[in-house]
Amino acid sequence: xxxxxxxxxxxxxxxxxxxxxxxxxxxxxxxxxxxxxxxxxxxxxxxxxxxxxxxxxxxxxxxxxxxxxxxxx
Length: 73
Hints:
The protein is mainly α. It contains two helices and no strands.
C-alpha cells in the first residue's frame, strides 16, 4: 500500500511539474518537442505492429492453405 501511495504521489508531482514547465514560453516549446517525439515514437511502434501483424496473418493464411490441400504421396 505504501508503494502505491508513493507511485500516485509521483504521478501527481509529475503532472504539477509539467504544468509549471508548460506555463513558461520556453517550457511550452520543450513540452511541444517532447510531445512530438512521443507521437513519432508511438506512430513508429504502431506501424511496426501493423506490419508484423500483417506478416503473421500472411503466414497463418499459408498454413491454412497448406493444411486444407490434400497430401499427395
